[in-house]
From TrEMBL:
Signal sequence, renumbered to the chain: none
Pfam families in the cross-refs: RVT_1
Domain Reverse transcriptase positions: 1-171
Name the record gives this protein: Reverse transcriptase domain-containing protein
Species this protein is from: Symbiodinium necroappetens
Amino acid sequence: AGLVALPKLRGGVRPIAVGEVVSQAVAHFPGLARWVSWTYRRPTALQFGAATTVHSAGGVQQGDPLGPLLFSAVLQSLATELRALPLDLAFFYLDDGVLAGDVQEVVRALQHVQRRATELGLQLNLSKCEVVGAGLLSESALTRVLPQSLLYTSDGSSRFQRNFELLGAAIGDEDFTASHCLARAQAAAPLLEAIGGLEDSQVSLRLLRSCAGHARLVHSMRSYKACCELDASYGLAPLSGDPYVVQALAAFNDFLPQPLAADVVLASKQKMLTTAEASWQRHLATSSLTARAVLRSEAEPGARAFLAAVPSGPTRMESAAFIVELRQRFGAPDAASDTWCPLCQGVLDTHSLHASTCAAGGERTQRHHALRDALCNWAARAGLQPERERPGLLLPQRPEEARVAARRPADIYLPSFQGSPVALDLAVVAPQRQESLAQAGQVALAAASSYTHTKETHLDTARLCSAQGVRFRPLVAEATGAWTRDASTVLLAVSKAVAVRTNQEASLLHAQLLQELSVISRGHRARAVLRRRAEASEHT
């Protein structure tokens, strides 16, 4: 077979046999086989100027997204053979390979790579390979067994190394690893500082988690043995005496059988401190009934979906609203004492939980309609032909049921969903709802589950719908954004239907749906809090 050039990830090209590319595509990616054959078996016409056509017979160009995949597929057989050799390490990440072991075994493995590469249409570029010596191994011991181009540059300088970087991790002596980590930290510091100065907290959190060097710093911290120097902003000494840290530590120690010192807690990972089931149960046991209900609701998956939302379009939150919901997640009070709600004259508690239940102001209706419209749009994307507030769904069966015809039990009506017509009725309740508070303190989603039953039995709605051949399904969420199990099943089915129609990943679409609904639910709650706090301050 002829040779074409596939791109190398770090620049340059590598020759590779077309027949090998096609055979590997047929074996591992049959859906791509015809496309690969059509692309690689003929020259590519490149237009140069208005009238000149250049035929690229050397293969794909730099930046072709299929290049790394096909190159790795060809290389996979060689990687499998190397793992069967008596080496300490033999692995590849795309075109970056590592061979480690006794000198003679590494030499034989290198010779095997060179021999098999030729058969595959590849050529090992020794000038881009590195030789790293471990322990007492000297450079002179390698001159008799390794190619000179691997050990020396064209001007005779040595290429033998003691330190190297493997997949972004520094491996070597103390000076090398320290300088590597320091350089990475210094490069990321300006961006991280700039993120801290952004006014939009939702955007800041997203940038921090996704880019700006944060992920590379976390990778360095996980791959480096220990920190030798701390940023002054994160020093343990100033933190251990901070009033907020002292207060938080005292509250945390109340839930432990034996108190922990500040330096121990600050040096521990959050996961170690917060995922212990015994500690969680003690925390619940010492909390008030209302606090337990809220905590259990906040621990549900839908409640934290807004944290992972991309701050764009329907998942965009106002900065002030985002901060309000972060405070809610942390259990931080919004005021030093209770006050009167300026809209309904009820008690506006220190944590502003009243805002999610207050009937005045119109926020609850706005939240309901926003959730209904969002889910209706998703159902339309799924091809379910949804109808908002469909009239005439219930027909009177007896004279005394004349008023039934005026009712609209479906916020969203689906003519066919999982085998039958369905009336979806949305509602949002507070986890600390008085009618179910005792149970909500013991079982997560008790408030939403209880209200689901209320929806079904109110005015005999479920039975009347069933008599008309329509299944009545309440979709009830708590103000935190956590949905009941039955509602979650419906949301998952809708996202899967959208995935089938759009050829997208169902799990990603499901996450996006939960994020959008979480942002809507929590955003309206936050605006209700901000409105009441602002008006309350005007009256004081």
